[in-house]
């Protein structure tokens, strides 16, 4: 497996913006007989979202399919378990630096339930819900790799996750200077 494939396998994942919505765990009625292993399974093994996020490094959003322009969006993990994470998100919107404390519940979007989680429901931890979900796809890069993201990884994001959808580039080199996340 090439180093680009390894990076892509853990850098591309789904985010569900859980705008005050708690997902229902009872919605998954798939049986084991409905799952099949594709030819790409061994070329691109399932990424482990929990392992990717379990770091002290800042994680930058490089590309997103979200229609909200939040430049220089950076996450810093505060706490993580195999089931959920608490993290701080900093971004620039309308020339202001904003910071939010968010909660993510790990879930499955495309992987089989016996594989590592590949998606996360994201939102504020609140006691009530409105069931307003919007699925977006992000290409995330750890700070140590953000200066030179792999071209193959970026193409894979565009081809597989953002086909026919407008993509916003949220990161550029000035993001490091505009705000240093102090989480």
What is the overall pLDDT average?
A: 73
* CATH homologous superfamily annotation: Calycin beta-barrel core domain
Largest sheet strand order? 1-6-5-4-3-2-7
User: Quick one: how many beta strands?
Assistant: 8
CATH class: Mainly Beta
Name the structural class: alpha+beta
Distance between termini? 34 Å
Radius of gyration: 16 Å
User: Number of helix segments?
Assistant: 5
How would you describe this structure to a colleague?
This protein has 183 residues and is of the alpha+beta class. The protein has a single domain (3-21, 38-178), classed as Lipocalin, CATH 2.40.128. Helix content is 18%, strand content 34%. It has five helices and eight strands. The protein has helices spanning 3-11, 40-43, 49-53, 151-161, 175-178; strands at residues 12-18, 59-64, 71-80, 84-93, 96-107, 119-123, 133-142, 168-169. The protein has a seven-stranded mixed beta barrel. Helix 1 crosses helix 4. The termini are far apart. The model is unreliable at 4-35 (pLDDT under 50).
Question: Would you kindly provide a brief summary of this structure?
Answer:
The protein is an alpha+beta fold and 183 residues long. It is built from five helices and eight strands; from the N terminus they run αβααββββββαβα. The protein has one domain: Lipocalin.
């Amino acid at each position: 497996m090439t180093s680009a494939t390894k990076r892509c396998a853990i850098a591309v994942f789904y985010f569900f913006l859980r705008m005050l919505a708690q997902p229902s765990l009872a919605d998954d009625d798939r049986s084991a007989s409905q799952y099949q292993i594709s030819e790409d399974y061994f070329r691109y093994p399932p990424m482990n979202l929990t392992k990717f996020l379990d770091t002290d490094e800042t994680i930058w959003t490089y590309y997103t399919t979200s229609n909200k322009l939040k430049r220089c969006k950076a996450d810093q993990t505060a706490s993580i378990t195999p089931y959920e994470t608490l993290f701080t998100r900093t971004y620039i919107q309308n020339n202001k630096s904003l910071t939010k404390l968010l909660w993510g519940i790990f879930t499955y979007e495309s992987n089989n339930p016996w594989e590592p989680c590949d998606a996360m429901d994201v939102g504020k931890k609140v006691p009530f819900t409105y069931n307003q979900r919007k699925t977006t796809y992000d290409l995330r890069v750890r700070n140590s790799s953000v200066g030179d993201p792999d071209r193959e990884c970026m193409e894979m994001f565009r081809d597989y996750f953002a086909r026919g959808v407008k993509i916003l580039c949220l990161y550029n080199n000035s993001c490091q200077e505009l705000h240093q996340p102090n989480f």
